Amino acid sequence: MEDDLRAVRMTAPGALEQVEVPTPTAGPGEVLLAVGAVGVCHSDLHILDAPPGLFPTPITLGHEIAGTVHTLGAGVTGWSTGDPVAVYGIIGCGTCRGCLHGRENECRTVPPGGIGLSRDGGLAEYVALPASRLLHVGNLELAQAAPLTDAGLTPYHAIELARPALRPGTSCVVIGIGGLGHMAVQILAATTAVRIIAVDSNVAALDLATRMGAHHVVQAGPETVEKIREIVGPAPDGADVVIDCVGVDPTLTTARSVVSTGGRLLLVGLGGGTLPVRPVADEPPTMPLETSVVIPFWGTRAELQEVIALGRVGLLNADVQIFPLDRAPEAYDLLRRGEIHGRAVIVP
To answer: N or C: which end of the chain has fewer CB atoms below 10 A?
Structure first.
């Protein structure tokens, strides 16, 4: 192996460039992974846009990772050179109540962090990471496995949180059919018997939703709420579950306007919108009574194993656009402009 490797790094807040860095080594309990594919996530744009000091710099981005085991560090067992794997990106403290229950995504000791967030990620030819983060993917293509680790896991976790409300014959609205939304539609189709209503402003995204199993599609616009209401019925009835994969003010307004009394609203997207809550009797409420609002974060390792299982049997397929490593900055520019369909995947 050469002494230096190519990596795409945030060299300063807002600055993304390809550079050469020393090849990492696998420390005790770690593996050196030959990166096969890395998903391009909106969360990376939030890291790039974050105020100075919030994330370390320089840092190699990329938290949706799949690859093959190259080198085992001291003390690592259960893995062999050449094993194809996906990476669970969260690294919790391991000792708090959330971590002890296997919910590292709810770690109460350290802020949300992990591979590609608080330590170097996968936008490189090789990455060193804890062996505890690996899951087998079998014969699943690495370009398919990588997006499952977040774009698949996050909506799967959200759907698991709402599972009691997703009874046969109920309705679920998915807002935003991008990297996460097109996965959410497939997960709902594969694991429930609900009526799936997909919402997006882009006609191509709605066509994708239909191919992925949506029963109804609604193009976002001035009459979005009215069109959804024609499907789910008037208030206080409505959608039993709404999954907002965008999270800006207009989509949150739509979500709270169509969710049913006693329904579930899952705010998955990190668009920066505000969800008002005003439970007063003498004014129109901002949310229906008995409605639950949850902000899911990523998911658990156990859930990722289930997501990979759906992928391996062909029930969950990422719609991907492939880019080589040297075009990673271009992929992020396209993502920022809303010109990526499904998920962009970097293949070093």
So the answer is: N
Interacting residues of 54 by C-beta distance below 8 A, sequence separation 6+: none
Query: Cis omega (within 30 of 0) on the bond before 348?
Result: no
Q: Rounded to two decimals, what is the model's pTM? A: 0.95
Give yes or no for a cis peptide into 28 (omega within 30° of 0): no
Q: Give me the torsion for CA of 96, 97, 101, 107, rounded to 10°.
A: -60
Note the CATH number of domain 4-136+318-347: 3.90.180.10
Of 334, 337, 322, 339, nearest to 38 (Cα)? Answer: 322
Q: With beta carbons less than 8 A apart as the criterion, state whether 79 and 31 touch.
A: yes
CB 173 within 8 A of CB 239: yes
pLDDT in tens, 93-137: 999 999 999 999 999 998 778 999 999 999 999 999 999 999 999
Q: Are 66 and 86 in contact (CB under 8 A)?
A: yes
- Sign of torsion, CA 245 299 209 38? positive
Taking the C-alpha atoms of 87, 90, 94 and 96 in order, what is their torsion angle to the nearest 10 degrees? -150
Task: Evaluate whether 73 touches 26 at the Cβ level (below 8 Å).
Answer: yes
